[in-house]
Write a structure and sequence with these properties.
Elements lengths: L1 E6 L7 H6 L13 H8 L5 E6 L7 H8 L3 E5 L5 H14 L3 E5 L1 H5 L11 E3 L4 H13 L9 E3 L37 E2 L4 E2 L1 E3 L2 E2 L10 H4 L5 E2 L2 H10 L5 E4 L8 H13 L5 E6 L1 H6 L1 H10 L1 E9 L3 H6 L6 H14 L2 E8 L5 H14 L3 E6 L7 H6 L24 H16 L3
């Protein structure tokens, strides 16, 4: 079958820019569509094409005309959900293709996509289940029995079997199809940490249940590791790029497996800079693992510090402390590993709260602090707790840079203060 996979364009809206003319705050995603490359890796035997509308915003019409696909798969984060629906509607106007939507928002809030322009949803990790869906459609068999796949029923609630995810869902032996996005490789950059880079998946899911996070929905709460051999294989497939991003929510969720992988990278003689996500408590618990990874090429780590007070960390069920965050900073700095620190700015912040965060970042010399606005994403525990407070329901505003609940400061003042903080943190003139 002919399968077209689509990465939506940058479609997030900026309330401060549109409403107040504050131009600093805008979300632009420039990373490669790893989720689609991974899906494509298990679709051998089918004709495949990836249309990356972030890299080529005008590429869809030509690709549809040239390929005339039987199946179109679209991935979408929450802020891209409406854009994905718009793409599905346009495809239905010009094509008889079956439209399938997956990705984070479909996994967190599948009912949102229960619409006439969409035929099926892939809910959760889809490398195996999407293949099962395509093969079932090709045989013209009923799709209702595929776990993790829902056939849309507009006007009626979705009915589908939940999938019990395991190692088989990783299809570890099938590498991503990096060749399908090779034409855009020079556009896949991450400013502030070295520019051009490639993405590799070493794990899916997370070992924790922070209230704001949608990652556990992807694997039904499980944490799944790729084999060390598969990760090294994928790193080699990306060739001589200057940096690899291990695009996992938590690369070090299994410290024993992390040791195996770090040593395997060293033994393989791979010489490349590595960026990986980690938790502060893992750094404190096993600094020797991160010393090993420093030798393997780890130059920077993304840590979700989130907050600087234990009370607020507890409110997120972070299962961490401010003291552990500070100790992790010390350990990583001693090792010479740069720190990309994620922080959550609550809409309830006062000027004093902004000042405290600013002072913490400066005192501890976080290399690249990234403050996001607290956003209750549908399908997360935080959303259930805060949904009655939400005043902005346009999902294209759910970029983690907009306040979708009321601000304590006057709204314009909140955004102006937040924008000033961003400029200082990101060194924007």
């Amino acid at each position: 079958m002919k399968v077209l996979l689509i990465n939506p364009p940058n479609s997030g809206r900026s309330i401060p820019e549109e409403k107040y003319g504050i131009e600093t705050i805008k979300q632009i995603f420039r990373g490669e569509p790893l989720a689609l490359e991974v899906l494509a890796g298990n679709l051998d035997g089918h004709d495949l094409l990836i249309t990356d509308l972030k890299a080529d915003p005008d590429g869809l019409d030509q690709d549809l005309e040239n390929m005339r696909p039987d199946i179109v798969g679209i991935t979408a984060m929450t802020c891209e959900a409406d854009a994905a629906i718009g793409i599905a509607e346009e495809i239905k106007k010009v094509s008889g293709a079956k439209v399938v939507i997956g990705g984070p928002h479909a996994s967190c809030d599948p009912e949102y996509f229960n619409r006439a322009s969409i035929d099926h949803l892939v809910i959760g990790l889809g490398k195996r289940s999407f293949r099962e869906l395509i093969d079932t459609i090709e045989r013209k068999d009923p799709t209702d029995t595929i776990p993790g796949v829902a056939r849309t029923t507009p006007g009626k609630p979705l009915q589908y079997r939940k999938r019990s995810y395991g190692m088989a869902d990783l299809v570890d032996q099938k590498p991503p199809r990096y060749d399908l996005t090779a034409a855009h490789r020079d556009k896949y950059v991450m400013s502030g940490v070295g520019g051009k880079m490639g993405f590799v998946a070493s794990a899916f899911g997370c070992t924790h249940r922070c209230t704001f996070c949608c990652v556990p929905n992807i694997t039904g709460g499980k944490y799944l590791n790729h084999s060390a051999d598969a990760v090294v294989r994928d790193m080699r497939l990306l060739g001589d790029l200057p940096m690899i991003r291990l695009a996992d929510a938590n690369t070090f969720g299994d410290l024993e497996q992390a040791k195996i992988l770090g040593q395997r990278i060293i033994d393989a003689g791979i010489k490349i800079h590595i960026l990986a996500d980690m938790r502060a408590d893992a750094v404190v618990r096993a600094p020797q693992v991160f010393e090993l990874w420093k030798r393997a090429g780890l130059v920077a780590g993304v840590i979700g510090f989130e907050e600087i007070s234990d009370q607020r960390l507890d409110s997120f069920e972070k299962r961490n402390s401010a003291a552990q965050n500070i100790e992790a900073i010390r350990i990583l700095k001693d090792l010479g590993i740069r720190i990309i620190g994620d922080f959550i700015v609550s809409p309830t912040y006062t000027h004093a709260d902004f000042d405290r965060l600013d002072a913490f970042v400066n005192h501890h010399a976080i290399d690249l602090p990234v403050p996001s606005v607290l956003t209750p994403v549908p399908g997360t525990p935080l959303y259930e707790r805060m949904k009655d407070q939400i005043t902005v329901h346009d999902l294209s505003c759910y970029t983690y840079l907009n306040a979708v609940t009321p601000t304590r400061l006057p709204e314009k003042e909140f955004y102006r203060t937040y924008a000033d903080l961003l400029r200082r943190f990101l060194k924007i003139n």
